[in-house]
Each structure stands twice: as structure tokens, then as C-alpha cells.
From TrEMBL:
Organism the protein comes from: Candidatus Nomurabacteria bacterium RIFCSPHIGHO2_01_FULL_42_16
Gene3D superfamilies in the record: Nucleic acid-binding proteins (2.40.50.140)
GO molecular function per UniProt: nucleic acid binding
Protein name: Cold-shock protein
Domain CSD: 1-65
Length: 66
């Protein structure tokens, strides 16, 4: 899937991705980043990812810059 980095939480190891056609943003943790670091990402960057299901609901995994 493709999405856009919507929020990067300063000082925290996570952020949120907005997906076209979806109203709820998708959580991602820096441990799910592939070939990019959290410091290299910016709000507005387009990323690819897979949707996983965790205890707290869906999340983005295998996140990489598109």
C-alpha cells in the first residue's frame, strides 16, 4: 500500500501515515522502517507499507520510502 507521512512525534520513536480513502491514520513504529531511518523521514513523504494487526488495532509494517 501507499500512504503519506502525516505526523512524526518529536522525541518519540513513532509517527502516523495517512492513507487515501481512509479517515483514520495508521500508526507506525521506527522498528518497522526498512531502508530509511526516522530521522530521514519528513511530513509529506510518500511511503509504501503493509498493514499488520496488533493488540491495539491495525499498524503499518515494512515501511519504506516510495
Amino acid at each position: 500500500m501507499k500512504g503519506t507521512i502525516k505526523t512524526l512525534v518529536v522525541g518519540k520513536p513513532f509517527g502516523f501515515i495517512s492513507r487515501e480513502g481512509e479517515t483514520k491514520d495508521l500508526f507506525f513504529h521506527e522498528s518497522e522502517l526498512k531502508s530509511v531511518t526516522l530521522d530521514e523521514l519528513k511530513v509529506g513523504d510518500v511511503v509504501t507499507f503493509e498493514v499488520g494487526q496488533g493488540d491495539k488495532g491495525p499498524f503499518a509494517q515494512n515501511v519504506s520510502r516510495a
